[in-house]
Amino acid sequence: xxxxxxxxxxxxxxIGAVPVLLAGSGRPNAARWxxxxxxxxxxxxxxxxxxxxxxxxxxxxLVESHVWIASLGVHYGLAxxxxxxxxxxxxxxxxxxxVVGAWEVIKVNTHQYMAAMLVLEGLMIGVFCATDALxxxxxxxxxxIPMFILIGVWGGPRRVYATLKFFIYTFLGSVFMLIAxxxxxxxxxxxxxxxxxxxxxxxxxQTWLFFGFLIAFAIKVPMVPVxxxxxxxHVEAPTGGSVVLAAVMLKVGTYGMLRFILxxxxxxxEHFTWLIVVLSLIAIIYIGYVALVQEDMKKLVAYSSIAHMxxxxxxIFIAFMLIRHDGNVDAAxxxxxxxxxxxxxxxxxxxAMFTCIGVMYDRLHTRLIKDYGGLINVMPWFGFFYVLFAMxxxxxxxxxxxxxxxxxxxxxxxANPWIGLFAAFTLIIGAGYTLWLVKRVLWGQITNPxxxxxxxxxxxxxFVLAAFAALVLFIGIWPEPLVHLMDSSVTQLVQQLAVHxx
Amino acid sequence: MPTFNDILVLxxxxxxxxxxxxxxLLDAFMKPEQRGxxxxxxxxxxxxxxxxxxxxxxxxxxxxxxxxxxxxxxAEILKVFSLLSVVLVFIYSRPxxxxxxxxxxxxxxxxxxxxxxxxxxxxxxNLVMIxxxxxxxxxxxxxxxxxxxxxxxxxxxxxxxxxLGALSSGMLLYGMSMVYGAAGTxxxxxxxxxxxxxxxxxxxxxxxxxxxxxIAFKLGAAPFHxxxxxxxxxxxxxxxxxxxxxxxxxxxxxxxxxxxxGMADLAHYxxxxxxxxxxxxxxxxxxxxxxxxxxxxMLAYSTISHMGYLIIGxxxxxPEGYSAAMxxxxxxxxxxxxxxxxxxxxxxxxxxCEEIDDFKGLNQRSPWMAFLMMLAMFSLAGVPxxxxxxxxxxxxxxxxDAHMLWLAIVGVVFAIIGLYYYLRVVKMMYFxxxxxxxxxxxxxxxxxxxxxxxxxxxxxxxxxxxxxxxxWCKQAFVG
Lengths: 502, 479
What we know:
By secondary structure, chain A is mainly alpha-helical.
């Protein structure tokens, strides 16, 4: 059996970036088609994961392990569980849509844009596969370079500020994680995350390690109060950059929590659950209100992303509360599963929202809400998609946004009705900012004469939006395959939580 | 009496001395327009020297001339990389020297003499030998810095370098005399056993401190870093490249010989001193680099900070730490040659290309050069998957290994601060528009381009696969 599937997934897009770069600035079409070819190939390869991965058995599968640095015992170790598989497929789908979405939009240095996207894609898949902590860190950090270039070269007017802030902020978090990794290496003599999961650690050690990991992943998610880089980065990034950032890169933060905080420092995690729960609730409620008053559409969606990611962190950590205090395994699983579904769903919904904004921006070159109004009169098809994604964003049943949030709120209620109550606020606030956005942009009379001249979405844009719409509806109406894919992995994660390490 | 065997051990050094003298003669009889031949002969001479070092490598450590000269694995590795970096300097600097009418035989011979100094220094088994090697290296360097004698900036830099260098050599020598007074021997191996029970421990410590000053000066670590920015900026770029690469490898070799070879028993005294020097270097280097507008000066401050990281490896005072520090020195030499190589590739007659603003919009003018420079910058900043990250990682791991978690944390904090100025160069190249009137032509030298590309791509290759190199570094210090 061919057992290098994961390596192929990582390296195919990265190596594909070379011919795309060689196409040069003189042949943008060649670069586009090549990039699309490699994205589609990667997607097709990622589909092989679904039959190859045995969802019922769970655990880490498709293991690849080669000695990387013999004298340190570092391995090039890859493996996936259900959660990784779901995130990898999300990544490869988004990759295709981003390339198609940027087709005519990126006119300058197209080949470099496409190459950066391909490299980024490979690195993100690498993060979701790595079982060796040093390898994970390398992918985790290396992602910053293409993103830095993407925002800085093709971004908006304040792109330099935004991209420097993005890079330095994220780097700041991750170097503390590096210290934590080195400490664990000194303790255990290996970088194997599986070994670390059973490494006994005192409470003091766990506390330090917990905060080392937390600062890295909280910045990446981002959680309040270290979220301030995200609105800047989103506003200035090109559409494709925003889509990848919101759809996949933020998930790397919560994925890291699952892989590092939960299994390695569970006792510290339990001890500080209150902190994460409070921060998540602040993200859900306060950031929701912040989103309400935004005048820039991209900023609004960026803040709504933070609020939605609050659900993911809430779902993950509420499981601690349920398992350790009440011993309620079913509710804990429900919360964790909700968080996972929310991760995937938010990937599609936020990606779609940013694509919609990109479509409008390409026509009017403004992102301010007040410049729009009455768009439905000239772009009815676009309006259809926009309303659909807005509904998904505020969690309407039948869309993917509903499933995850509902599961997390249910689990929160069983942990503590107050937490559930506060979390449920999102249904009102989310509906508030999203519907108000739709009202101001789509409905009403056309006040800006330029809006009247806007053209309906073309075939390419329709394809991207329709693909997003299909996925949003699919998960919303029939979440069962997705839940089943991740089910045994979630169960194993929850079981691990119950184990004390002191 | 030296035996034939002694001479055999020193074969690469003897060979280089002879070759350098022959080159000098050759140059005297050569017409100026034939000088291109000299360039290639010099490169060939160095490549043969690399071959001699590798091929003649004894299976285990051997000494020659009564312990004066040590040929061990650590020395071999440092020699190979020093010679290699001088080869790179030669290849990168030819068009630069031709453009400025500095293309003379002296540059090649003096450079070869300097690298002989490096080779003697890293192989020294005796305090006198250390001093000899060091003087050969620094005297040649003074001359090289003053190579462009019509430039007031170069002359000023050479003068500063000479005065401060002489002062530090004096301190080193003074320290050595104290140590000799306390231990009664100049031989490093004999010192190794004598330091702990020296008759006059205070005198010994006194000597140690003065020797540390000499080491810190040679590395360019704060607070003995003052000469670095002026010399880097004032010297012509090829010479700066040499000082940033081979000279740093030599400084590491000297530190290793003195600290581990002679003073290992006093480690608990010099460890905290070096830790302070490391923190100061990282702080001053990284903070002052932020405000620089001249790229060579910025890289000078970046060197200071890098030496801080290298010293973290020395602080560990065990094989783990020395191998990490050596790995770091090699990585720094390769990164510095790549970064200065791009500057040399872009410079032309009347245009030094050394202001950071000169790099504005480089991606539009020459995407490949911009890409290579970006690799060098991200590697210097220590961003994975580039070589520089793993070098930083190893020294930080060595700090944790030595139970100095705080030093590792200080290290990463300054790495974040340092990130900014490297990113600024990338920003200039990629995000800014090229200014009107900036020349767009590149140096047409094909060898330069190919070798420079390889140099920068090695930073990626060694980032992805650095196991063997680390293995060699470890072998040099274990057992």
